[in-house]
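**Protein fold record**
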Amino acid sequence: MPRSPMLPLAALLLGLTPASRAVAADEPVLVEFHFTPVPNAQIAIWLEDAKGEYVQDVMVTQAVGKYGIGNRPGIWNFLSSWRAPYGPRVSVLPVWAHRRGKTYPKIILHDEDPGDLDSLGFHENTSSDEPYFCRPLSPPEHETISVDTMTCPSPKVFNSDKGQFDPNGDISWYPPRNDILMFDPALDAEEIQTYAELNDLDAVTAATPPGDQATFVTVLVRPEAMAEAPLTAYLEIGVEADENAAYSFDRDNDHYVDPDLSAYGVEYLGQPSVVYAVPFDPYTKGFRGTSDYAGYADWDGATGTLHPPDATISAADGSGADRLQVMTKNGETFRWGVYSHGGPGEGGTTSSASDSDGDSDSDTGGATGAGSTTGDDPGDGWGSCAQVQALAPVEDLVLVGESFDRVQVSFRLPPPADPTIALKEVQVFSIASSAGLTDELLGAAHQSTFAAGELNAEDGLVTVEVGELWADYTYQFGVRYEDACTNRSPLVTAQITTEAQKFQTVDTFCFLATAAWGAPWAAQVAALRAFRDDYLKTTPTGVDLIRFYYAHSPPLARVIAREPLLRGLARVVLQPVADAALLATAGG
């Protein structure tokens, strides 16, 4: 597979030769990766050896690693929206995906109706409960939700087609999702039960960094990965809809617009992902960084080719190569930086409390300075780690519902086992399930990461907030923390049921319309509500119609909300009325 022209130079840049050398010891080496990404980025970090061979995953953001956005049912250029359910994003991180050299069965729609294969919706006959993705959103909904509410329209009125393996045997470079806990034999393809087993990224899947904050990732580099030193640390970063003059796309002409749902979805195509690379020797303690990107991927993710930098990629305003911001830490200025704690004899760590086999999870989070320790500080601010430390679990875990979609999580951090080792982050996991959360289920749980610098801890008491939840669902929560040397505490769990979303009746919502479209702010619902207020309420006949509607529609709406087929029928019946209402209200 294609390789970057810079790869053969890695050894020369370090003043080393790429010849194979004996591993200095049968111990992993702790390495830190430092960067400041823009918000809403998808990121992968990996290591290659002096021969340009892929040797170890470090991390991948959970939209790709957990929710399988690179390999899901539907057409690749389906329009997007917040947590869009369909359309594989094959261009998200193609260099990383191809360099891994791992393929998976391609996922296509389980709905075999030819009329539905190019549709964003109408898959009710093959749709089961959806644990994460939202129903398709219109552009106004997408803007409101992605910026303000950060919560799907009620998931109790949207199920999704989980897909099936392509019967033609086509493959994908991305894994399928691994968050599905329930299987409905009447609706789902049997193979969805194997998705989690096929997805091999549990150990390296991490929460998406919040953006515009200094972030660091730590990993224990395995001895076998260092057999061909030096190594090169790669970071690939992609952002949807990051357009410029060279990569300018149109919603209607460059994406597939569902003719039956043409008002739904926003464009997502833009500049391709960009890649940063830093060569380093894990056995040599020290920092290496760069402010220059190594190249960019195919805009459509067709191959794993790394194209050399050129003027088509933006370099400012958080776009293109500026998706990694310039940062300064310990006197070093860079976009992508690597610090190795060195091998035996240099004060480097030899093992981790969290993974005795040396294959550590790697999670994002952290703030500038959070990776430094004072144990064997060489004087440059980077520090080094002590030996393995056993971390005590958090105490007094309490969950309090703040609203229908937000939960306050409070707990007490125990005194550190070694006060010279800094806290890196707290990881909070949540999953909609009545079964208890265990370490084995963490791969399916949503992860929220809180950097040490974000925590307001008073006498060890920490309170954080987790949002983007669903109303009237039972959630399992788990909390653990990690220090700068990859030591990790045991998981502590608790359960909470979110409160029901409170709806007003006459003055705010149209019952049947809300049940049919799944959200009170849908354009159709808003138009019907405005038509009711501006026209029906002004005539005696209209008032009688309103009284009849509100007397009989709430119980019917409750039935419709639970039945996908009835919701679809209700949309078919109400759509002409809603279209007329849109015209009437627009004209008024």
Observations:
- Residues 576 and 582 are 10 Å apart (CA to CA).
- Residues 1-23, 348-379, 503-517, 548-562 have pLDDT under 50 and may be disordered.
